[in-house]
Specification:
There is one protein chain. This protein is 45% helix and 12% strand. It has a 4-stranded parallel beta sheet, with helices on both faces. It is built from 5 helices and 4 strands; from the N terminus they run αβαβαβααβ. It has one domain (5-184): 3-Layer(aba) Sandwich (Rossmann fold). With 190 residues, it is α/β, with parallel strands linked by helices. The termini are far apart. The relative contact order is 0.15. Helix 3 (93-113) links the parallel strand 2 (74-79) and strand 3.
């Protein structure tokens, strides 16, 4: 439960116990609720989205950084979205606000902790070949057709393409990359 600090502290401890340390963390929990115009968003939906998508990332980093700063550093990659800091659409204010906050939180945390050996970056995917990018009632084939006209590349990103961006930011090859927000969205926010 990313909204529970104790659960995240226990997750970090369990990971360290099982694997002998924590060198890389990827924070990839998120929900999409509260669709509709801002004035019509239910307060419970707003709170749930912000609690999961922003506070969850903050709590995860809090415990990951606490371990990393005392054990030689590490790399953290937060999953944000192209919706937020890079692009907006109507009817998704809670999600857009939460993901813009994740992008800003990533940059703030990166500056706060880089001198302690903890590199923090974000990946902001757009529509990808995953269930979250399906419209209500839409099939994968229908999404494929929709993406041909909705993205400059003409298709959704594959999960492996998003994962490759995460792997790069977590790797020593990105040793000088700090506070970046790498957009992987088939050109949608270009």
């Amino acid at each position: 439960d990313v909204t529970d600090s104790d659960s995240l502290r226990d997750l970090v401890r369990a990971s360290v116990t099982r694997f002998g340390g924590l060198d890389v963390a990827v924070n990839n929990a998120g929900i999409l609720r509260g669709a509709g115009p801002v004035a019509d968003v239910d307060e419970e939906d707003w709170d749930a989205v912000l609690r999961t998508n922003v506070t969850g990332v903050w709590l995860a980093m809090k415990h990951e950084i606490a371990h990393m700063r005392e054990n030689g550093g590490g790399a953290i990659v937060n999953i944000s979205s192209n919706l937020g800091a890079h692009r907006r659409i109507p009817g998704a204010a809670a999600y857009i606000t939460s993901k813009a906050a994740v992008s800003a939180l990533t940059r703030a945390a990166a500056l706060d902790h880089v001198q302690e050996g903890v590199r923090i970056n974000a990946v902001s995917p757009g529509a990808s070949a995953a269930p979250m990018s399906l419209l209500p009632g839409e099939t994968e084939a229908e999404r494929t057709e929709r993406m041909k006209t909705q993205t400059p590349l003409g298709r959704a990103a594959e999960a492996e393409e998003v994962a490759a961006a995460v792997l790069y930011l977590a790797s020593p090859a990105a040793g000088a990359v700090v506070g970046a927000d790498l957009v992987v969205d088939s050109g949608s926010s270009a």
